[in-house]
Amino acid sequence: MQERAFDDDKPHEECGVFGVWNCADAAAVTALGLHALQHRGQEATGIVSYDGARFHSHKALGLVGETFSDARIIGQLKGSRAIGHNRYATTGDTVLRNVQPLYADFEFGGFAVAHNGNLTNATSLHRALVRRGCLFQSTMDSEVFIHLIAISLYSTVVDRLIDALKQVIGAYSLIALSDEALLGVRDPLGVRPLILGRLTHADGSPGWVLASETCALDIVGAEFVRDVDPGEIVVIDNRGVHSIKPFTKEPSRFCVFEYIYFARPDSVVEGMPVYEARKRIGAELARESHIDADVIVPVPDSGVPAAMGYATESGIPFELGIIRNHYVGRTFIEPTDSIRHLGVKLKHSANKPMLAGKRVILVDDSIVRGTTSRKIVEMVRAAGAAEVHMRISSPPTTHSCFYGIDTPERGKLLAARHSVDEMARLIGADSLAFVSLDGLYRALGKSNRDAAKPHYCDACFTGEYPIALPDMMDNSDRQLSLLTEMR
Ligand code: AMP
Predict the structure, then answer these.
(1) pTM, to two decimals
(2) Same-domain check for residues 218 and 292
(3) Which of 24, 205, 389, 468 is deepest in the core (most CB within 10 A)?
(4) Rg (the chain; Cα; Å)
(5) Tens-digit pLDDT profile for residues 345-390
């Protein structure tokens, strides 16, 4: 297996995190939570539990169900507190030592951490830490948290964590477990999601849950309490839930792509149901780029809610003209173009009676490299469609993400190199339209229009990166060329 270099220019993780405090079956509950968050990471999974005396850990490559359906493994993960992590499949490869949660024994006790996001000064921190004698065990940016905590001169876990957080730059939602507490942290701009939930046990005592998305609360029967605030550290211990806000408050910049694609449609993110948001974006798309057609067909699954919104708004019938095979992972999992190409065919097939002789509007959430759209348009034409119009419920993806969404480098983004007309030609569609940035923000009800009060990170559509990218400013030729490319 080929291994990703630590200072690779691409984001390494886009993940799901889950943690539980005071629950009899903490590891089993964590496995369920991770199962609900499987869409956030399918490459590897891990759980660390604590039984009041010892930490226990199990990590493996593969899906949650494959790893944690074995009762013996869950049985070994003893204790009433646990955290877990799903790692996203990126184009690089994974080895077990890169699977989270990361665990270390410190002078103050054990400490496990699970991270969703991407640090933008990880390379420089890594270099400085290695110079100080830190021995890295993995190639993950998340490991810098462990070393920064280890060398901190503060005495308590929370103070050491704050000390570490003040040195890192980037997007992070962290869940950590120490001997004394379950901790949840969101970066100062709140780019990635993190929520707090509550379990009520039969005796009335509370249990607490931290998770990437609300869909993980539903599966374990926890109630939603609130989003963890940007820049907040939530400390859950035997005295209850406390909040620490060590950073100066800034306008939050939640990742708008979570609404478009990444979050599960049954999650509620920052007060807005994702399903509702996607339908509203689809309706905006219909208003902005209507064209006469016989049928609206979603590219399943991610295009479904937007296509429903498009169909309702346009009055054109909605049909499942493409059927998805659910036993194949996301196309992005496959590392090479040729396999990806094969993957698309494995994943989708044409429902011919819904397409033959019809003017079809296909709705998908995004075009990244263009592989999916090209194959889908070709498939729909081969099924006999009279016209194929592609409608996309995001603005063109013109820039790479450095904050935890796995996107290819800019040169591979179709919209970075081609106009919309050229893209239509390249994917073989009769017409192509994307929702505008204004349309997207109309649908979400909040926007970035007031520069003094932005709400979202939309760097992948605008190239405006709200968090500094120090590693990109590094002197290496490759990083300099990346920076030039970004501008
Ligand atoms: P592409 O085939 O490269 O144009 O990718 C676009 C397809 O991948 C769309 O159907 C999206 O639903 C999906 N997609 C978009 N962004 C991502 C991502 N970061 N990870 C995995 N899949 C994605």
Answers:
(1) 0.92
(2) no
(3) 389
(4) 22
(5) 778 999 999 999 999 999 999 999 999 999 999 999 999 999 999 9
